[in-house]
């Protein structure tokens, strides 16, 4: 078999870390994607005088985020819902189903779990070793990949090293790293340019030359050559998210325009098929330069593309459920096309495998391949399914992937169990809804310090604005009565960070707001509470939550109950008032009373920077500020909130109630009630409330058996709102 890989730059540079590895990785024959260490020699193509048909499947993983194993390291438990170890089983099955195949990775591969953090920062990977994630991927013999935005999180020197060295960019020694310790497959990205060389940071594309099995018109099986061009694109947002690591070193270009530049070039070099490997998703809300998710406009406005492979948004396309995420004109979930172009996005974290199975036609006279779009099938295969009883079941794990990362897996488990500091109190969210900030203040302190330091160093235009932070009790008893943050006093381990900050995929964002918008933010948070009528004699439930005490109607989850925990801010929540209606204030009440900043009434026009998370910054503005409104995001950090909290505790070493768990910015407005005001929390834990100084809390009933739908798993507590 002849094997050739061409691109716009020297194919022997870091793009091809290991020629031997690539020979095994890139082989595409009739048996397709062989897992043998030594590939079989390619058959010599036979002379062909007839037209023919063939099948070629493009297989995609995306946004693996270093979920190599099906494991949650912070809880130290197996998590069958994630992990390349299970995607690998789908890949091997797909290779059986589709003998002619290519396997590509769509980026955001090296960061996301503590595995990646361990190799990049905790015990930095020597240049003589291959990244463990790439070892796992080597067992599957990938053909090509693209840089995701998270590939830049650990800096350009580290990126150059793990790619096998050779990045010609400021601040990088290109000699650090060796080709045989790189990914083992070409990494292509066309729209990231080194300011030092004025050339693409890595190769913009690769042309893979293959022999595939085809069927002639007479039914005879033959082998035919094909050239497949793969153009890589990533989101230009890297210059915002990793500004401190990339500014002055690289530039980014628009995805749509870059695709338009390179598709003709790849075609001119003889590519039969051209794919765009886009680390980005798609929006049809109007094109603008350097948009984050340009997939829709690439397919609509760039001719000559045979397929687009997407990611970044952690969504699925095509989605044949009743309510697909992408449902705008041009996105055909039934056919798996966007503006007529076959397209796929395979979720994230190894939960799915994207498949575009092409039906190809060979014109013998023209010696040219074309795609039979009507017969091309697009699907996303998932690692989970339902059995006959409706129970979720998962595909088996792949032993080769497990073995490839076993050493790192063991080291990482030991690391998360290691101590990072001590605490003189129990950090709990059991009574966070009624004023205990024991598990919240340290999160706010970590976020505030992190953002304030960045503003001072990199955003001088905002240096005079106060930096505040909000967080919420993410574990507020929703799943069950044990679903609360609860970090014991004494030694704190790395895993405590997971308990203090539940969501490992949340990243720090900083937004610029006014005093008036802070008021709106807090009014929205106050929707956590039902309206209490102080004249009612019967019991009333305080929390607007379907598990811990809800009136008929809506439910407001605890993870949306944002609070400040600083002496600079103070306010009261008056639960006797109706909920505020941000879109029509005249129809609602106002619950936030006596809002002050540094002891003075809040100035509606004063500006602040507020540290929060990416979900709040990107998705919550319509609920907080009003329909159609958006937050002014001044910094979208790539760093996870959880890691920021972990590093903060490491630096402090000693956590105390007085310094890190006793400053609440809010209280309930005092009001006497005729009847009891009740809420549910963990059973037999009144001491937690008392230790936090909440003297107005008492036990009403030991458990909730038969009360408000209870089954005995929660305790029922009473709050005296007049104290």
Q: What's the count of strands?
A: 38
CATH class of the largest domain, please? Alpha Beta
Q: Roughly how many Å is the radius of gyration? A: 28 Å
Distance between the termini: 83 Å
Mean pLDDT: 91
Bulk shape: elongated
Number of domains: 2
CATH architectural category of the largest domain: 4-Layer Sandwich
State the CATH superfamily name of the largest domain.
Metallo-dependent phosphatases
The level of helicity is 10-25%
Structural class: alpha+beta
> Main β-sheet, in a few words?
15 strands, mixed
Could you please describe the fold and organization of this structure?
- With 723 residues, the protein is of the alpha+beta class.
- It folds into two domains: 4-409, Metallo-dependent phosphatases (Purple Acid Phosphatase, chain A, domain 2, 4-Layer Sandwich); 418-535 and 548-668, 5'-Nucleotidase, C-terminal domain (5'-nucleotidase,  domain 2, Alpha-Beta Complex), CATH 3.90.780.10.
- The protein is 22% helix and 25% strand.
- The protein contains 19 helices and 38 strands.
- It has a 15-stranded mixed β-sheet that branches. Strands 24-32-27-33 form a four-stranded mixed β-sheet.
- Strand 3 (71-72) and strand 4 form a beta hairpin.
- Helix 12 packs across helix 17 (641-652) and helix 13 (494-500) packs across helix 17.
- The longest helix is centred in the middle third of the chain and has 18 residues, at 441-458.
- The protein is elongated.
- Residues 1-38 have low confidence and may be disordered.
């Amino acid at each position: 078999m002849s094997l050739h890989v061409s691109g716009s730059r020297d194919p022997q540079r870091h793009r091809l870390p290991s020629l031997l590895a690539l020979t095994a990785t890139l082989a595409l024959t009739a048996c397709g994607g062989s897992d043998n260490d030594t590939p079989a020699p390619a058959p010599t193509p036979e002379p062909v005088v007839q037209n023919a048909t063939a099948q070629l499947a493009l297989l995609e993983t995306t946004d693996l985020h270093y979920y190599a194993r099906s494991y949650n390291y912070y809880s130290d438990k197996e998590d069958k819902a994630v992990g390349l170890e299970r995607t690998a089983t789908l890949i091997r099955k797909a290779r059986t189903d589709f003998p002619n195949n290519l396997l590509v990775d769509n980026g955001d591969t090296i960061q996301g779990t503590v595995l990646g953090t361990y190799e990049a920062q905790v015990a930095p990977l020597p240049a003589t070793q291959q990244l463990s994630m790439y070892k796992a991927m080597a067992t599957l013999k990938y053909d090509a990949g693209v840089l995701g935005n998270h590939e830049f999180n650990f800096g350009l020197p580290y990126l150059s090293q793990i790619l096998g060295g050779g990045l010609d960019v400021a601040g990088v020694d290109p000699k650090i790293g060796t080709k045989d310790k790189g990914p083992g497959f070409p990494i292509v990205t066309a729209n990231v340019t080194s300011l030092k060389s004025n050339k693409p940071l890595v190769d913009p594309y690769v042309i893979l030359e293959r022999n595939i099995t085809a069927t002639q018109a007479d039914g005879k099986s033959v082998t035919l050559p094909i050239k497949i061009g793969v153009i890589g694109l990533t989101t230009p947002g890297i210059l915002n998210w990793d500004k401190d690591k990339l500014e002055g070193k690289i530039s980014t270009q628009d995805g749509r325009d870059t695709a338009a530049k390179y598709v003709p070039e790849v075609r001119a070099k003889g590519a039969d098929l051209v794919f765009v490997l886009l680390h980005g998703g798609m929006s049809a809300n109007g094109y603008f330069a350097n948009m984050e998710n340009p997939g829709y406009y690439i397919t609509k406005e760039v001719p000559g593309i045979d397929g687009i492979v997407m990611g970044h948004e952690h969504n699925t396309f095509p989605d044949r459920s009743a309510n697909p995420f992408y449902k705008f004109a041009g996105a055909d979930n039934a056919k798996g096309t966007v503006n007529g172009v076959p397209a796929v996005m395979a979720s994230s974290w190894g939960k799915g495998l994207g498949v575009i199975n092409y039906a190809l036609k060979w014109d013998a006279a023209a010696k040219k391949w074309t795609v039979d779009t009507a017969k091309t099938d697009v699907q996303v295969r998932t690692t989970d399914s339902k059995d006959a009883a409706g129970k979720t079941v998962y595909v088996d794990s792949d032993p080769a992937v497990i073995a490839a990362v076993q050493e790192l897996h063991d080291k990482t488990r030991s690391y998360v169990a290691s101590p990072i500091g001590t605490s003189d109190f129990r950090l709990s969210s059991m009574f966070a809804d009624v004023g205990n900030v024991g598990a919240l203040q340290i999160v706010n302190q970590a976020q505030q310090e992190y953002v304030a330091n960045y503003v001072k160093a990199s955003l001088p235009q905002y240096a005079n604005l106060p930096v505040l932070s909000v967080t919420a009790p993410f574990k507020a008893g929703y799943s069950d009565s044990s679903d609360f943050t609860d970090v014991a006093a004494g030694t704190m381990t790395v895993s405590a960070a997971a308990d203090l900050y539940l969501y490992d995929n949340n990243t720090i964002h900083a937004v610029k707001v006014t005093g008036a918008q802070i008021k709106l933010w807090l009014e929205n948070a106050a929707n956590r509470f039902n309206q209490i009528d102080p004249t009612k004699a019967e019991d009333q439930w305080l929390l607007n939550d379907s598990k811990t005490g809800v009136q008929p109607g809506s439910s407001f989850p605890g993870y949306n109950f944002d609070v400040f925990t600083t002496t600079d801010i103070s306010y009261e929540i008056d639960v006797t008032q109706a909920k505020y209606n941000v879109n029509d204030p005249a129809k609602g009440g106002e619950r936030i009373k006596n809002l002050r900043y540094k002891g003075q009434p809040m100035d509606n026009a004063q500006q602040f920077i507020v540290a929060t998370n990416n979900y709040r910054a990107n998705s919550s503005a319509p609920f907080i500020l009003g329909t159609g409104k958006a937050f002014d995001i001044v910094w979208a950090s790539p760093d996870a909130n959880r890691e920021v909290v972990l590093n903060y505790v490491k630096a402090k070493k000693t956590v105390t109630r007085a310094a890190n768990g006793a400053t609440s910015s809010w209280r309930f407005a005092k009001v006497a009630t005729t009847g009891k005001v009740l809420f549910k929390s963990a059973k037999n834990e009144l001491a937690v409330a008392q230790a936090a100084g909440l003297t107005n809390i008492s036990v009403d009933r030991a458990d909730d058996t038969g009360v408000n739908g209870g089954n005995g798993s929660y305790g029922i507590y009473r709050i005296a709102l007049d104290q």
